[in-house]
Amino acid sequence: MAYLFWAFAVVWIGIFLYLYGLVRRSRALEREVAELRARTRAGGPARPARPGGGGS
Amino acid sequence: MTRSLDGLLAWGTFVTMLCALFGAFVFAQTEQVMGDIQRIFYVHLPLAWISFLAFGHACWAGVQYLRTGRGEWDAVGASAAEIGVLFSTLVIVTGSLWARPVWGAWWTWDPQLMTYLILWLIYVGYLMLRSAAGDDLRRARFAAVFAIVGFVDVPLVWFSARYLRALSPVIFSTHSIGLAPSMAWALLAGLVAWSLFYALLFRSRLRLGLLEAQVANLVDEGA
Question: What ipTM did this prediction achieve?
Answer without folding.
Answer: 0.85
